[in-house]
Write a structure and sequence with these properties.
With 129 residues, this protein is mostly helical. It has 4 helices and no strands. It has one domain.
Length: 129
Amino acid sequence: MSMLMTIHGEIRWLVALAAIVVIVKFLIGWLGKREYTPLDRKLLLVFTTLLDINVVLGLILLFFGGGFSGPRLEHATTMILATIAGHMTAIWKKSPDSALKFRNQLLMVVLALVLVFLGVIRIRGGFMF
């Protein structure tokens, strides 16, 4: 389980990196009045896939790796909410309005990143990285 815990902990950096890339790209797209492209969709897919993988690993650790303490349950709940926020970007998937799509998906990615940050703080007991 310790290797799984290490992998779970390190994927958070990939999630954060993917979120930052999406945030920057979507800000440029939204403020620059650009068209939403297949690359934008793929970047968002990478972000949500990394969230999904990490939540699955986290749930395995929660159920099979040490019990249901308060901080662990709060961390799991926060991360599930972050993943839901990440997937809520699909609401605007078929919107023909690129500006609306960029803005709303950007807001959901920022919300997901904030929730991930709060969840990590909760499980670690502070701002330790």
